[in-house]
Automatic annotation (TrEMBL):
Gene Ontology MF annotations: carbohydrate binding; hydrolase activity, hydrolyzing O-glycosyl compounds
Name assigned to this protein: Carbohydrate-binding family 9
Highest taxon of source: Bacteria
UniProt GO BP: carbohydrate catabolic process
Signal peptide span: 1-28
Organism the protein comes from: Bacteroides stercorirosoris
Amino acid sequence: MNKRTFADSLRKSVALLIALLCISSLSATNPQKKEMKELNVKKVSLANVSVENVPALLDEEKVPFQSVNTVNWEAYPYKPEVQFRIAHTDDAILLHYKVKEASVRAVAAGDNGAVWEDACVEFFSIPAGDGIYYNVECNCVGTLLIGAGAGRNNREHAPQEVMDKVQRWSSLGRESFEERIGECNWELALVIPYSAFFKHQLTNLDGKAIRANFYKCGDNLQTPHFLSWNPIGVEKPDFHRPEFFGTLNFE
């Protein structure tokens, strides 16, 4: 092999090695490339069922729970026990959460307030596939926040008449309270009509696949935490990262 051929071969080998290292690095920092979760969402009938009976309905329909258990940031290692399950009807999404954590708090003054500072569960989704995602955040007594937009900034909150159509039930009741220290188990059920996705005209999700993620947080709790269903590959806590959403496949 002459010097020129050897040099060309060496350059190609180095380029290949660099490319492989780049791919490996991207895979490590973007876990959605290898760990994107998918979930099938069962269709059920909500006829004559009130929101407080959604857990019993999902029991009857044998809808399984999924865990929200990914700790993405070493600075926040606390991991409460968090589960959710989801189903849909002709005109709504049904959500049921179960949580066991070291303390609870519900001080948000009203809808579209700082519910993420309380004991809070969240559902982010892109229902129309156009890049507009919704954040449905609810504290442990059913105080709700719904926002929409293409990114973290300049998000638009749902008007109160839209919020009022979301049915809510909490095992802790609906009254606000200061932080209660000590292990607590609580449940939350939501009936989210498609009209809650107020920037779109959704009529149903039958047969559709949408990208979504589920979270548990408590920014101002005794032990702050930030858990997700699908892993988030960024350096600091940030739930507004649709590139890390998983996939929900609606029957």
